[in-house]
Amino acid sequence: MAHLLSQRRVAAVRRFNRFYTKQIGVLNLLHSQLSLTEGRVLYELAHRKEPRAASIAKSLGLDPGYLSRLLRGFIKRGLISTKAADGDRRERVLKLTKKGREIFAALNARAEEEVASMLDRLPTGTQRDLVSAMERIQLALAGPSDQPTTPAQPYLLRSHQPGDMGWIVYRHGVLYAEEHGWDEHLEGLAAKVVGDFIEHFDPEREHCWIAERDGEFLGCVFLVKHPDDPERVAKLRLLLVEPAARGLGLGTRLVDECIRFARQVGYQKITLWTNSVLHAARRIYERAGFHLVHEQTHRTYGVELVGQTWEVDLTR
Question: 135: which residues sit within 8 A by CB, 6+ positions away?
Answer without folding.
Answer: 244
